Amino acid sequence: MTILDRYVLKQVGFHFLSGVALFVALLSAGDLLFRLAKMWLQQGITGWKVMVIFIYSLPSFLVYVFPMAILLSVLLTVGRMSGDSELVALRAGGVSLWRFTIPFLLFAIWICAGTILLQERVLPYTSLRLKDMWEESSIANWLLQENTFFRDTTEGGVERIFYVRNVNTREALLEGVVVQEYNKGILQRIINADRALNREGKWIFEEGVAYEVNDRGEVERVVHFAREEVKTEEDIKEVLKTQKRPQEMSFAELKSYITRERARGQQTDRLEVILWQKTAIPFACLVFVLLGTSLGIVSPRAGRALGIGLSVLVVFGYYVLFSVTSTLAEGGVFSPILGTWFSNIVGLAMGGAILWWKERK
Fold it and tell me: Are 29 and 127 members of one domain?
């Protein structure tokens, strides 16, 4: 590693940490800090527990913040070096722009690896630790999400897949429940109920309809009921504490889950989009390095304020394109891989083209 590489890495590292602090403050300044302040001031949660909740909530932010901070750090570093004519001196000494970009790319590879580690190891762990606090209903109302999926496989040979629209944590009540009941892998019944409770080793469904399915997958009988009971060994609190949303699963866990769902004939486009987002977002670090380097050189004397403004503008454009193409992939317009990686491909092409143009110029 040359003196130039160490010099650049030192500066970009400092600006990266500043960028992380800035973007975490911006992203958490809304809903998260408001809820934490409400817990502390109105609901009697101790300051220490509020701090622990904030720390456990950070990984879900940092997965997105790291690529943003990379872009800001590169823009500020290149902008300052250009403004102080250091880049001119390097060019005069025979250093090409491609060579100048290498330490930035090296730093981005480290942060990319760190983002993957954060997403694969830290985020699933912190999500479960947050749910461990769910015994306090004031916290649970925030942590437990709507549209919850979970499985119950405790009755021998029977598997039930639950979809729950809403969780009433104060009454330990599930609202808007749809259950697919399988016997040895074959769908036998679909239960649609207004409410479901878990009491004394039973699931109790209230005010619903049961659709009994024959071996050909056809609805054979429809039964309306005021109350329906089935056996279980699950406890609703333990089910909801350990249940992971797709965003909280590791890549391997989500891939395995998709395989099982596909084997049951279920639509998995949305899950596949989430799966490939787990690869596209960390590698955005490399995209932002090329964009940041090229844009920083385009505006050599712009200053710190424009560097921050450019980073916000580029990040906004990237995530808008990312959201649009991911949504199109969910609808089947693009494949899940192309839909989630499209913004990376566009960013790499733009950054590389601008850098090539500046090198030629």
Answer: yes
**Domains in the chain: how many in total?**
2
Per-residue pLDDT tens digits for 159-192: 888 888 777 766 667 888 888 888 877 888 889 9
> What CA dihedral angle connects 167, 157, 267 and 254, to 10 degrees?
70
| 8 A C-beta contact, residue 87 and residue 294 | no
Higher-scoring residue by pLDDT: 296, 276: 276
- As a whole number of angstroms, the distance between CA 6 and CA 102 comes to 11
* Boundary of a domain, candidates 229, 244, 259: 244
Quote the CA–CA distance of 282 and 108 in Å, as a whole number. 9
Q: What is the CA radius of gyration of the chain?
A: 25
Closest CA to 124 of 244, 254, 276: 244
Q: Residue 150: what pLDDT?
A: 75
Q: What is the pLDDT of residues 56-111, one digit of tens each?
A: 888 888 988 999 899 888 888 888 887 777 887 887 788 888 888 889 999 999 99
Q: Domain of 17?
A: 3-136+270-360
| 346 and 280 assigned to the same domain | yes
Question: Which tops the pLDDT comparison, 33 or 93?
Answer: 93
Ranges 53-67, 135-149, 291-305: which has the least confidence: 135-149
